[in-house]
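Long-time lurker. I teach an intro course on protein structure, and each term I like to show students one example going from raw sequence to a predicted 3D structure in token notation. This year I'd like something fresh instead of my usual example. Would anyone be willing to generate the tokens for the chain below so I can use it in lecture? Attribution to the forum is fine with me.
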Amino acid sequence: MLRHMAMRTFWGQVSLALACAVLSAQAGAAHAQERGPRTRESARLGIDQRFFRDELGRAVILRGVNARVQGLFDVTFDDGRLPLENIPELAAEDCRRMAELGLHVVRLPLNWSAIEPQKDVFDPTYLKRVDRAVSCLRREGIYTLLDLHQDAYSKEIGEDGAPLWAIVPPPEMLLGGPLGSTLLDRRLAPQTIAAFDSFFAVGDPSGLQAQFIEMLQYVAKHFANEEWVIGIDLFNEPFTQPEPLEPFNTRAAEAVRAVAPSMVLFFEPTGLSTFNGGEPVGARTMPVAGTMYGPHIYDIVLFGTEDQRVNLTRADLEPAFQRTAQEASDWGKPWMIGEFGAGPGVTNYEKYLTFHYDLQDEYLVSSALWLWKEDSQDAWGLFDRVNGEWVERPKMVNVVSRPHAVRIAGTPTRMQLAAGALTVAYANAFRAPNVLFIPERFRVAEVRCDGKVVAAKTCGTNLIEVSCGRGAAHELTVSLEPRTQTD
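-- Reply from a regular --
Happy to contribute to a lecture. Here you go:
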């Protein structure tokens, strides 16, 4: 164990190779950013009590996105009902563009209905489709977080999730598409609530939890040795109370841990936690090692008032981060924001997302934006759908693709983007390079460690590498200038 890994850390045995081209770096000279070879990291990330860690012990802060993918987000029927939504493909161009925008993790929603369409019958062709998505992301240096997703319990009565055979009691009416704006109604429908009540019933009298956990093991075992799959989100937005959720999460995590010893396992609060203003942990526990708290933060954008959105300030959003950080601390677990977002139809959406990212930097927390592409429901995401073609939203891209530290050689204590500079402070420093993402619209004007000008290297798609050398603590500052057509 490395000296700087003496803290209690959960991670897999991995290998790492960084290929970097040295930039021109005379003292006091500007350091032009240029595209270099992509980072080829074949390293599973582990976690300590606060951060992801790579094999060198560097803290890793991931900025990412959720991506619903055609063939994985299963919304088709075989009985003539119309599909619920138009789900986009994940093409090589998508994966490449994500890397260019500094999105280094994709939370990938999967559906139980597609994995186990018939009871005790798993579909191996589905995981082959998942393999193709993971491979597309891996080629661009992007991690995958597998998300066992549901909305309104099942596509048969809601949007996605459980297969028809796992709806107990059997639904009185099967629903189809198009989904339109009816998802909230479907979430609150009596047959949906009854299905959740059956699933989370104490003691699992229906056996549904046991079936779900067996399916989780099937998926986890398949990806147990895939280093670019960092983990599994056990159950998206569970619609129940905290008391029955705790034993389910523990039971599911123990089962997955048995077949995938190195995976990080993400557990969520109830789906009502944001609406209820948080979810105090109290005496509840998550005893399984290598687990991470995965809340969603949609405060104000979904559950606030229009007046709050019109007059939005950073201070309005900060209580959500304070609350969530406290919940993670009470669990004794690191945390990652599994979902957050806002679309162009939301008043002040650019300001909202900017404040969100500012607070993510302040709280040094990883995150995954909802959503990469969407032309249904509220059409969130980084793209418009114009005449059948996906077209980037420049304003959204500029907010989401922002300078940030990805790998930090120590324990981060501060990250801030302000006044044309990215500043990163860290303690418990050791001699390893820091990796920073700088969007293509910026030029690196100067890099300083503790006030002294230092060299930078290219290290992947829009990534630079900076070493601050010896010392117990460092402050790294990257001054940025907008690129011009002549750069």
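Some talking points for your students: The chain has two domains: 3-41+409-482, 60-401. Confidence is low (pLDDT under 50) at residues 1-8, 11-42.
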